[in-house]
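Running co-folding for pyridoxal-5'-phosphate.
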Amino acid sequence: MPTTNIHSLVRENIRNLTPYRSARDDFDSGILLDANENSFGSTVRNQLDLHRYPDPTQDELREVIAGYRGVDVDNLFLGVGSDEPIDLLMRIFCEPGQDSIIITPPTYGMYKVSANINNVGVKEVLLSERFQLQPDKIKEAADDTTKLLFLCSPNNPTANDMKRTDLLKLCTSFPGIVVVDEAYIDFSKQESMAEMVQQYPNLVVLQTFSKAFGLAGIRLGVAIANPEIISFMMRVKAPYNINKLTADTALKAFDNRELLKFNIKKIREERQYVAEQLEHSDAVEKVYPSNANFLLFKIKRAKEVYENLAKLGVIVRYRGNEPHCENCLRVTIGMPDENVKFLRALKDVVG
Ligand SMILES: *Cc1c(COP(=O)(O)O)cnc(C)c1O
């Protein structure tokens, strides 16, 4: 069992922080004359009392999401997309100009961007050629200043799951905080790591409403971790980070779980179809196995193909500059007619 002492990993100034107490932390009913809101009401008609500040801790929404993910409310943090928890973890654990993180390219670009913004060092330990983790190399790269390890499963842009045994091994062997980004977990057959936060005090699981729930526009991300980490995140976040429109929409998403399941099933079926069609193309050299809502494939002269597809109005992502991803394109699974148009355009482009 890991013996990570979370408290000692936290930056000293954050440890000593007296959190801001907002008016709504103290009272939320009565004649509310404490927050300089506009008592005459909002100029926009809406049932949500938009003239009042939102709940700083979003207890109702957290309760629902915690229930859905099989964890306790005090294991759950809500952020403005996943971007916010990624940034908060840097700010809580990494001393600028001194500490560092480990990332495992090819992977999601935001970890490095956020580290750069926070003046935090970035060490790269590549995935293997088969896009799997190399736990021994990660362990070798870690030292006292390496506070965070960012893993992504299913990984973007490679679309595959990281082996669960490797994820668990790293929770035990990595001396800092292990962040597992599960943005695409609902498309995967592999089980979420969320419930493992009960056993691993240094594990943070990130999820989002942007992908399977189809709510990228409301900017809602979730961090699941041990209550001590969650309480630090709560202390450092902006007091009213989750707005009422976002919370209201997210709650409504849970009224429609059948549609969520249906869309996930459809996306998986379409993924299968697009993968098969790509495999039939002579120009395509490899279609990588996917457990996400996109496919990574290797194609001759990928850069040119990417540009020519764009000329036909079909926009995919060129990933050929990433390690082990030479001549690779990433395509999101679209609506059935969009997928057909993509495949037709690809045929036109490669001749
Ligand atoms: C899309 C994506 C996210 C989602 O980010 P949000 O800020 O929640 O929209 C997170 N991680 C990865 C790896 C992604 O691909």
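Result summary
The chain has two domains: 9-256, 258-350.
The chain has a mean pLDDT of 96.
Job closed.
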